[in-house]
Amino acid sequence: MKPVQNRSEQIQQTLEAEIFSGKLSPGARLDEVELAERFQVSRTPVREALRHLASGGLIQMRNRQPALVATLSAHKLVEMFQVMAELEGLCARMAARRITPAQIAELNRLHEALILLSNTDRVEEFYDVNRQFHELIYEASQNEFLAEQTRALRNRIGAYRRLVTHKPSRREGTISEHAEVLRCIVAGEEDAAANAMRGHVNLLGEKLLDFIALFPKGSESEFAG
To answer: 93-118: per-residue pLDDT in tens?
Structure first.
């Protein structure tokens, strides 16, 4: 039998991946008994995995009730997107200085793939290629700590970015915004690359209205003040 801690870590990693991918959506119920049956373990490693997920803010523990995948308020998410925009802007700035020819070629390939996917109903594939595009820019910054922090925050809000991707207008916007980010990075225009990426990620104008529309009626009030 494998040690409890190892099984706990496996369960935690599996649930994390499902939360980050959107397979476990915000508000999804996580019952200890059901999870124990699913992973064919006792409730002890399941409980330990849930405790670690809760400490990272990914789930909400409740007394005598199943845990829930954390649901972030619209106001909190807008704040997180603002920080995300600054981190990704910094990645783009540094990438404009440090990107390699091989990485430029791969960014161009991913961008072309997104253009083709934008005219189809393959939204999940579009989301995945879009994630690869952004993560390659993190890598191209040649700053491992910055890439780790940016990726960690992106994972926290990944389910919500996925929701926005389902809007056709947002996919169209992504293509033109990526084109400008890519142009600036290839040209070595550091300030322009940072500004283009910041504007792409941040929730401003119509993007903010699209985002608010994803929430139930009444959520808009969370933006007040």
So the answer is: 999 999 999 999 999 999 999 999 99
> Which of these, 116, 201, 195, 122, lies nearest to 158 by C-alpha position?
201
Distance CA 64, CA 62 (A): 6
Greatest Cα pair distance, the chain, in angstroms, is 57
Instruction: Report how far apart, in Å, the C-alpha atoms of 127 and of each of 10, 40, 97, 117, 182 are.
Output: 26, 32, 27, 10, 18
Rounded Cα–Cα distance for residues 22 and 24 (Å): 5
Length of the chain, in residues = 225
- DSSP secondary structure code for residue 216 in this structure: P
Report whether 166 contacts 214 (CB < 8 A): no
The pTM for the full model equals 0.74
| Residue 189 phi, psi dihedral angles, 5° rounding | -90, 90
Q: 37 near 71, Cβ under 8 Å?
A: no
What the chain holds in terms of domains, given with CATH numbers, is: 7-69 (1.10.10.10), 74-213 (1.20.120.530)
For residue 42, the 8-state DSSP code is -
69: left (phi > 0), else alpha (psi -120 to 50), else beta?
beta
